[in-house]
Amino acid sequence: MNRDSEFMALALEQARKSYEEGGVPVGAVMVEGGKVIASGHNQRVQNGNPIAHGEMDCIRKAGRRVRYGDVTLYTTLSPCMMCAGAIVQFGVGRVVVGEERNFRGNAGFLREHGVEVTLLDDDGCRSLMDAFIAERPDLWDEDIAGNG
Ligand SMILES: [Zn+2]
Question: In this entry, which stretches build a coiled coil (predicted)?
Answer without folding.
Answer: none
